[in-house]
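Hi C.,

You asked whether I'd gotten around to modeling the 666-residue construct. I have! Everything is below, sequence then structure, no commentary in between.
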Amino acid sequence: MAIEDRNILKRIYVIAIVILIMVTAVSIKLTNIQWVEGDYYRKLAKERSIKNFVIPANRGNVYSSDGSLLATSIPKYTIRFDALAPNKENFDAYIEDLSDSLSVLLKKSSSTYLNDFRKARANKNRYFLLAKDLSYTQYATVKNFPLFKLGPNKGGMITEQRTVREHPIGKIAARTIGYERYDDNGNLLPVGIEGAFGKYLNGKDGKVLKQKIAQGQWKPIRDNNEVEPQDGYDIVSTIDVYIQDIAHHALLKQLIEYDADHGCVVVMETKTGAVKAISNLGKDKDGSYYETINYAVGESHEPGSTFKLVDLIALIDDNKIDTSKVYNSNGGEITYRGRKVRDSHEGGYGKISLAKGFEVSSNTIMVQAVYENYKNNPKQFTDRIVNLGLNKPLGLPFKGEGIPVIPQPSDKNWSAISLPWMAFGYGVSVTPLQTLTLYNAIANNGEMIKPIFVQEVKEWNKTIKIFEKQVINPKICSDETLKKVRAILKNVVKKGTGSKLYSKDFSMAGKTGTAQVDYHKGQGNMYYASSFTGYFPAENPKYSCIVVVHKPNTSKNNYYGADVAGPVFKRIAQKVFTDVPSTNIVKNLKKNNPVQDKNYLIYNDKVNKKPISIPNLRGMSGMDAVALLENLGMKVKAIGVGKVKKQSIQAGQPILKNNTIILELS
């Protein structure tokens, strides 16, 4: 019995010792956590319950040259409710009034809101979704509703803001206006003006301190941000929305009529190189046309007859022959090393001058002239092309600019037919914008200038950077050559291949082009690219323009440049000078329309403390006006569609938030 008692006692001692060791270990661990590693764990706990979140900065706006918004950042707000934040007294006192107020604003029954609030409180829901995608005006209104105006801690209102990029003119010129986003691998995808000038448009992100609540959700600790975001600069593009609209619809109409695959049009200001309109339309599977690829900038291909301008410049400026030199078209067909060069006109043109050969776009005449004068020194001809700058990209700010191909006699692929084929636009490759730049130089008295798409960078109404005219070549040829070339380009429209476009009331000059594309892939893959490049008016050019239409339906048997691309050019030229407001009207519109100043674009009530008056909105597009006024904190009612004709609150009146302004649109 004594032995059994001693065994029991030993077991008790062992258990006691084990318990003592465990208590000692726990005590040491607790002491270590509290005093030795305390700072680390307190920091870790804080990081897991409270941390900074990034507030993306608003990107700057992109404007047209006439002050219209092309791209802007609009804040959208999501409102949630922390049902446990208000105490019982405040919840019971204000919840019915809050439900009534929300019902009026968001058009949902008051009883529905009341039931939702009570259910959320009963379920201890600290992140109840109340409303999504509210405008700034709606957000500011909700913020002052009963209960919510007590603040997030007492009222329970949780606000989440995100920025949405809007394009007020829709998809027109979308590829050139562009975007900046990231792909699935985190790589930046810069496209168009938005991408190329992102360093100006991107602002500096802010920070907001949030606390973790139930279900892994976070809510701001206080109203004020830790670091306020700084908006990016504004970009003022060279695009004129009125000319853009004309060019877009003129191209679209022709693409539909000819069931073409894709096409592009560019309108450029002669003296400055400012691109006033650019449209790139490709056909989707459903037959609709969209801005998909920037063909004008990125598509390098054989231009065909529009390249014959190089022949004319070289022959005259190198003093090879005069434009009156007569050649025999030989029945419309000549042969070089077993390869035939044919005229589109069956039977040729008989014996005609070089000038006439260019005007009627005779391949046989132009090829004979070039081959005869440069066959012994083809490098002189290719050097002329290099001097014109057609051998290298224009150096545009956009990604994906097409690479030109200009063969050289030193190339291993150079052959006996390289020179004659170059003479009528084959064996070479250039982009539409390169071709336009050459024709624009003829219109601009020989000065070749780089196309530009942005004219300045602004911060509010302060100019940060101006993009001046960039000269590629101050003089591409002599004045005498210019005089002769311009006269011939004018005759192309008056009595040459472009005679269908001629109008005695309005002068134009240019060149038609009809190129076979992918002919080397076989007859089944070959298609036509129809083009017209020129400028208007012919005497004192103000604008140059190129139109290229790829793969028009050949069943109509009129796939030539004069038939397909030419009418687009003519429509743009006539509409620009008959419908576009005069320079004085545009200047007055800008003067009385301060939409260009960023101090009229307010994204929250802390951005601008200065008093602001109602702007003059007359002549402004309805979409632009609504976005502008909502950002000012006003309610807007628009009647009709189009541009603002009348406004109920006159310009110069003080802005009172939540006031309603009525806009009559025409």
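If it helps when you're writing up: The chain has a mean pLDDT of 85.

Thanks,
B.
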